[in-house]
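Lab notebook, bench 4. Continuing the backlog of folding jobs that were queued last week. Each job is logged with the same field layout so the records can be merged later without manual cleanup. Today's entry covers Nephrocystin-3, a 482-residue chain. Filled in by technician R.K.

JOB TYPE: sequence-to-structure
TARGET: Nephrocystin-3
LENGTH: 482
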Amino acid sequence: SQFLATNIITVDTQTLPFSLQGSIKLYKVPLRVVYEPRNIRCFATKSTAALPGTQKEDDIFRTVSAPKNLSRSSNSMNEFERELQEFFLQVKTMLKKGNIDGAMNLLQANYKAVKEQIAGGDNGMEQAAILDVIALGYMGVGDFEFVECLLDMLNDPIVLYEQVDTRILGGRGRYEEAMAMYERSLEILEGLFGLGNLFIREGKAADAENCLYRILRTYAKLYGDHDGRVGIAMCSLANAKCAKGSLDEAVELHRKGLQVIKDSKYIAMDDEVVEKIRIELADLYYIAGREHEGRELLKECLLTTEKYNGNEHPSSVTHLLNLATSYSRSKNFVEAERLQREGLRIMEMAMGSEDPSITVPMLSLAVTLYHLKRDVEAEQFALEAVRIHERAFGNKSLIYAEALDCLISIQARIGNDDADVLALLKRVLSIQEKELGYESEEVVTMLKKIVFYLEKMGKEEKLLLQRRLSMLRTKYKKKVHY
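JOB STATUS: finished
OUTPUT FIELD FOLLOWS
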C-alpha cells in the first residue's frame, strides 16, 4: 500500500522503559523524490589514459576528456555522453563490489585530467559535468569534504547558464544542443539539492547551508525573487538552518518560502511538494513553541486535500493523523482520539480490514488510548496491529517489531508477567539488531528497557548489557542531534 510505505508509525518510548511517552512526529505525505543526485547523462570522452600500476581485467581505468569546441556532431555528443555514463557506472560497480581502492584510483585519475583541462583554458559545461559525476563518485565513497571542494571548483552554476544562454543567442543551428546543455545544467543544480539534504542527514549543517544557499542565490538571479523555484530553495535552506540551530531564522525563511510558492502559483496547492513543505513548517512552529500556527497549517493541508479529493479519500488520513498528533502534543487526547478513529474508519472503508495500511491509524489510536488510561482498549488495537503485521510481513520484520514494541508497553502497564514482557523485549531487540545494526539508537532504547527488567528481576545477565549500554551511550553523547 502507498500509505504503508511512507506512514509507518514509530512509537518512541525513550522517557521511561515501560511507557509510551516520548516524541511524537508528524507524518509526511507519500512523496516522490523531487531533488536527488541522479545518474547524470552528460558530456563526452574522446581519449583515454591508463593509470600506472597493475590493472585487473575488470578494472580498466579510463580518464574522461571533453572536446575542445562545441561544433561537434551529434555522434560525438552521443559518444561523449555514453562514455561519461560508462565512467559513472564503472565507479558505481566497483563500490558495489567493495573495490574502494579501484574506485578511488579511477576518480583521482579523472580529477587530475579535468584539472589539467581547466588549467589549459577549457572551463565550460563539459568540465562541470565531469566534475559533477566525480562528485557523485566521492559521495558514494563517503568523502563529503572533497565533494565540497569539487563543488567549489564548479564555482557558481550561473556561469553554466550564461554559457548556455550565449550559445542559444549565438544560434545558427545549435539551439537543440544548447537546450540539451541547459537541461543537464538543471540536473547539476538538482544534484546540489540532493547533496544539501544528504549533508543534513549526515549532521553537517554548515556544509548543507552553504550548498543550499548557492542554489537559492542562483535561482534568485536566474528567475527573480518571486519565482516558485526560489520559494522551494528557501524552504530547503530553512531545513539546513534548523539543523544548524538557527530556529527563528529557519521558521521565518520557511514561512516566506511557502508564501512565495503560493503567490507565484508555480505549484498547485494540492501538490505533494506543497503539502510536505506545510508539514515541515508546522513541525518548525511546534519546536519554536508556536503550536497554534502549526495546527492552522495542518488544518489547511486537510481542507486542501478534502477540496480536491473528497472528504473521505484515503489521502486525507495523513492530515487527520497529523492534526491528532498536534492535539496530543497539547494533551488534548480526546480530540486526538476522534481524529484517529475517523482516519481508521476511512482506511478500513477504502482498503479493507486486513490491509496493513490500516495499522497506521490503528497504532496511533492505541497510543492515544494509552494516554487516556484506557489500557484494555489500547491493547486490543495493538494486538490487532501486531497480528496484521505478522501476517503481512512475518514475525522477523522491523515493522512487526515496531508494532510489538507498542503492545509491550501497553501490556507492561496492564501488569503482564515480567518474564513474558522481557521475552518480548528480547525478541524486538534481536530484530532491531539484524535490521538496524548493533549500534543503532533504536537498539540503545531497547537495551535500556531490557536492563530495567533485568534489574527488576534480579538477573545477573544485566551486567553484560549494562557495559554494552554504557559504551553506546558514550558514543551517542558525542553525536550532535538536531
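OBSERVATION: The chain has a mean pLDDT of 77.
SIGNED: R.K.
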